[in-house]
Structures are given as C-alpha cells and as structure tokens.
Amino acid sequence: MLEDIINERLKKRETLLAGGKNPYPAKVPRTHEIGALLRNFLIFSLLRKKVSAAGRIIGKRAQGGVMFLDLQDASGKIQAVANKKKFSEFNLYKDTLDIGDFISVSGRLFKTKKGEKSIEVSNLTVAAKSLRPLPTTWYGFHDEEEKLRKRYLDILFNPEVRDMVEKRAKFWNSIRKFLIDRKFLEVETPVLETLPGGADARPFTTHHNALDMDVFLRISMGELWQKKLMVAGFEKTFEIGRQFRNEGMDAEHLQDYTQMEFYWAYADYEMGMALVEDLFKTVAKETFGALKFKIGEFDVDFGKKWEHYDYRDTVKKYTGIDILNTDIGEMESKLKELKIHYDKKGFNLTRAIDNLWKYCRRQIGGPGFLTSVPVEVSPLAKKDEKQPQLTQRFQVIIAGSELGNGYSELNDPVDQEERFNAQMKLREAGDEEAQRKDNDFLEALQYGMPPTCGFGMSERVFSFLMNKSARECQIFPLMKPKNEK
C-alpha cells in the first residue's frame, strides 16, 4: 500500500510539472510567520492587507467548490480557504495537494462563519511536494526504536520531543551565558589527538591519511589543552563540544555526547564547588523554570542546602569496607556479596574501589558533593595537604549518579609524572581505561601552572533533569542500521 501511495504522489508531481509548476522551488512567498499573523489578526484583517504564509499541510478537506487547508509552521497553525470562484487554479491544487506538502498561500485574513481565523487564498505555491504519507495518517507511529530512527517525524508529531529539543538548546546556552558573564573565555581545543588524555576511558581510534598515522577522538573536553592555556597565562577558560568514549551503552552513558569543562586559575576545589552549585541552580531555573525535580525514584530540590559526602565514610556506611585499609581479595569478596557486576579484564584495586563506590552512590539522592576521593582513582587531582592519601576532588551527586567532576588540578610536574607512571603500570596489566603518560603535558607543567580548579559536566545532567534516558535526550541518537540488527 505504501508503494501505491508513493506512486500516486509521483503522478501528482508530474501533473504539477505538466502544469508549469515547480514542486520544489528555491523560494516561495512568505511575508509573516503564522504566529505573527494570529497575534496581529485584527489589524491585518481591518486593513485588508494581503499577506503570505508558508508551512506544512496538516489537514485537508473539500466541500463542493471550497477547499480547507490547515497550514502549520514552527510558530503556529492557521486555516487557508480556497474558493473555486475566486481562485483560478483551484482544480489543479485540489487534485495534487496532500497532507504533508509544504506550500505558500497569499491572500487577505478573514474569519469564517464559525469564527475561525483564516487566509482567503488568492495565490498558492507548492514549496515541497511530499512523496511519502505522514505516518500517523496511514499506519501509525508507535514503535519506540522507529521513533528514534526517524526522529524528524517524532519531533513533528510529538510536542514533548519538540519541547525537549528546545530545552536542550536553552540548557547549553544558559551554561555558556553563566560562564561568559563571569569572564570565562570560550575556547576550542583539538578533537583529534595523538594521545587521548584527561579521563579514564577507552578512546575511538581512526587513521589520519594526510599524516599517515593513527589518532584518537578526544575523551575529555580538552582538559590537558585547557591546562596548557593556564600555563600560557589565561585564567578562565571553558569549552562546550562533543567528546567520544568507546565504551558500553546504558540509560546514562553514550559514546558520542556533549560535554562542558571549565578551568579557573587561582581557585581551588572549594571555590569550584560554590561556583558549580550556583551554576546548577541557575541552569535549572533558566531551562526548566524550577528547582525541584522528580528524577527516577528521587525528589531532588536544588534550592536546599547541598550536602557533602565523604568518599571513605560513605563507602564504609553502605558496605562496611574501609577503602584506605583494604586489599584486592576483600574487595572482590564484597563485590560478589553485593552482586556487583564488574569487568574482570585488567581488574585491580583502583577498579574495585570505583565499582564499590558506584554501588554506594545509587543510595544517595542529593543534591550534594562527593569529597575526599582517594588518590588511586584521581590521577589528575591535587593531593589533600592534610591527608595525602586523598585528593581535593569533588563530584556532583544527584539522584544516585555522578553528574559532574572537578578538582584542584595537580600542577606539580614531579607528582604528575609519578601518577602517570602508576597509570601506565595499570595499562600494562590490562586496564584499558587507565590514563596514558603525556610527556608534552608534563613539559608544559614544568614551565609552571598556577593553582587551578577544573570542572566538567555532560549532557547527562540534562537527561536527568528531563527524567529520561540519555539516548532519548539526544536529538539524533546513533542507531544501528536496520540490515545490521
């Protein structure tokens, strides 16, 4: 049946061409958006001013010599009325127009006998002839995977998805404005790197043909590059862009997603926490107009006092394990007891601690900050001067998940090299997420980097505030082709 419909519409396309009408012109008349016509309807109708509107036909019906077209653009919907007695091309368009076509109509505004605001058609131009029927019209559109695969149709028919797209833009723009208002400089750093750094993650690898060498897609938002900018004398920078991690997929994790990171010279992690709390409150208010959210099973109020959760104390509270006085055997036993699945390849004490913490964080609603994170899981964070086993690191904890990561950046090149060497040993033992040693970055640190606070957050924050999966909150999520399922 679909093939029959397409063939019928192809014939209508040919009819338009035969009648001297281009079904796909480069430009059509449009003096106003539909929303503007509706807002100023009284003035335009009294002045008898001729206007032009353009949009998609979402409804069509004919009664004798009159054709009614419901026309919709991004700003609103209006009825176009074509009368055979007043519109010479009535028959051509009555027979060739379909729901889904884009058209432009020109004429004067008036109200029908039923009081509906309308345009009396004196001229009509096809802007784009649709060859496929809109899905809800013919065979429904209910399959969730198909909605993601054909997201443009989901957006077209689902106001909630359209609203999500608009909120997503507000979310990132509010972050950008927040930082720019506080004198942060927006920068761009390389997406292709010879050495992926700034995070514990598995990168995507590709080949650079011109230089004949393998390169990596970045796994952080220019962390080491932005720190080099601190060495260069900049004091406040940030970047918003795409980053890539070749890892597993779930409701919270994607491989290709948007991230923000800022770096602030002469600030430490406590100053960073104060700024980040203000950032989250501001962005929530400007994007959603609220500070209270239902996220999964948690009721989260950004407006209340943000808690601080000690890493060691929290793990001990929920598991009985003292992470600073444990060994790999005890950790594995506890992970098995709690039925925590973990990747055994390259498994080590660092990964054991991280897996145990992830179990604990699911119990915490927040909002708050995780603090006093061990050195073993923080290779780029400055050590706590009073407790050198811990670092000046903080993570935003909301609804059982980490929604941001920051720390007083490690700027001691000797300490940093020792941490890199420890990470390399983990890689050699099979830990693919352990960080690589970056000698160029170490050289930059040797020139001196001021005390700096860095922080990063991804679009996971947006998906949590929407109370949806990360995949649902991407406009066009990556989909496996149908023939490869």
Folded structure, characterized:
The protein is of the alpha+beta class and 485 residues long. The chain folds into 2 domains: 2-140, Nucleic acid-binding proteins (OB fold (Dihydrolipoamide Acetyltransferase, E2P)), CATH 2.40.50; 153-480, Bira Bifunctional Protein, Domain 2 (BirA Bifunctional Protein, domain 2), CATH 3.30.930.10. It is built from 16 helices and 20 strands. It has helices at 2-18, 34-39, 41-47, 90-96, 135-138, 144-149, 151-157, 159-181, 223-231, 269-288, 311-319, 328-337, 349-361, 413-428, 439-446, 460-466; strands at residues 50-63, 66-73, 76-83, 102-111, 117-128, 185-186, 192-193, 205-208, 213-217, 236-244, 256-265, 292-295, 298-301, 307-310, 368-371, 373-374, 390-391, 393-398, 401-408, 452-458. The strands form 5 sheets. An 8-stranded mixed β-sheet has the order 6-10-11-20-19-18-15-14, with helices on both faces. The protein has a 5-stranded mixed beta barrel with strand order 1-2-3-5-4. Strand 2 and strand 3 (76-83) form a beta hairpin. Helix 7 packs across helix 8, helix 12 (328-337) runs parallel beside helix 13 (349-361) and helix 14 (413-428) runs antiparallel to helix 15 (439-446). It is elongated, with a radius of gyration of 29 Å.
